[in-house]
Amino acid sequence: MGKINKVFVLFFIVFLFVMCNQKEKINTNKESILKGSANILVDETITPIIEDQVAVFESNYDAKINIVSKSESEIIISLFKDKSGIAVLTRNLTSEENKIFEQKKITPKITKFATDAIAFISNKSNKDTLVELKSVLEFLQGKPNSSIKGLVFDNPNSSTVRFMNKLAGVKAIPEKGVYSFKSNQDVIKFVAKNNGMIGVVGVNWLSQPMPVMQEYVDKVNILSVKSLTGVNFYAPSQNNIAEGKYPLARDLYIINGQGYSGLGMGFASFVAGDIGQRIILKSGLLPVRIPGRKLNIRNEISNEKK
């Protein structure tokens, strides 16, 4: 009988050991603010800067973030279709979209982290690098304009189309003289190969071109734009965006609809923090807050030669 009890105790100890290991394995795979895996929906017009942020975030933490680049309209649909979504948009949520989250009993965490801009580009052979915003808007309104032969957008459902349509006061882009592809890369390639067209892209694709896109970016001009009320033309530079001179600037937001303390919260804090803001600053976009500089002050200066 004593022998049977010993076997039972030994079996029970082994059982507890296995169960503890299983529990530890489950906890290891559990997502937290700095650990685990998650998908992030990203507006295609700002994909390069988010790729940089994710690369550094993953190198610092035990996390895996999968970037899903889509048009703005596709992101909004996916964001509400998923039970717990994270999205990076070029605008904040509307009141109607907030109501959908309320129905799901989720209060989304909104983090503004940078300001970028929509840029106009033309073929390098075009010597005129200036364009009036008024002319572009009139073209979108279907009014004849001798200075513009055609406009090229990335996607009919993109944030750039929505932004420009809103400025022009139209619900849809005109069929004549306006073309659309699938991505910002397609627009840059098309303009690089075709003279006389004006491309409409996110400036991040020009300030941080991917290696495969560099040869095409080198073949286009970034146009300086005159606002509807201004007299001067301004390029979409970091300084002009900061001073409010460039008329096509827009704020960037991380929308965290997870409803719990997951990677969405950790990633948003990282991007809005010191390291993330330095990445923004280096990219040519405008960070929400300018990272501070550390200065080493010495009381004595050594003149000794080394």
Structure description:
- Keywords: Signal.
- It holds the Pfam family PBP_like_2.
- This is Substrate-binding domain-containing protein.
- Residues 36-273 form the PBP domain.
- With 306 residues, the protein is α/β, with parallel strands linked by helices.
- It folds into two domains: 32-115 and 251-287, D-Maltodextrin-Binding Protein, domain 2 (3-Layer(aba) Sandwich), CATH 3.40.190; 117-248, Periplasmic binding protein-like II (D-Maltodextrin-Binding Protein, domain 2, 3-Layer(aba) Sandwich), CATH 3.40.190.
- Helix content is 40%, strand content 23%.
- The chain contains twelve helices and 13 strands.
- Strands 1, 2, 3, 4, 6, 7, 8, 9, 12 and 13 form a ten-stranded mixed beta sheet that branches. The protein has a three-stranded mixed beta sheet with strand order 5-10-11.
- Strand 10 and strand 11 form a beta hairpin.
- The longest helix is centred in the N-terminal third of the chain and has 28 residues, at 2-29.
Question: Briefly, what is this?
Answer:
This protein is an alpha/beta fold.
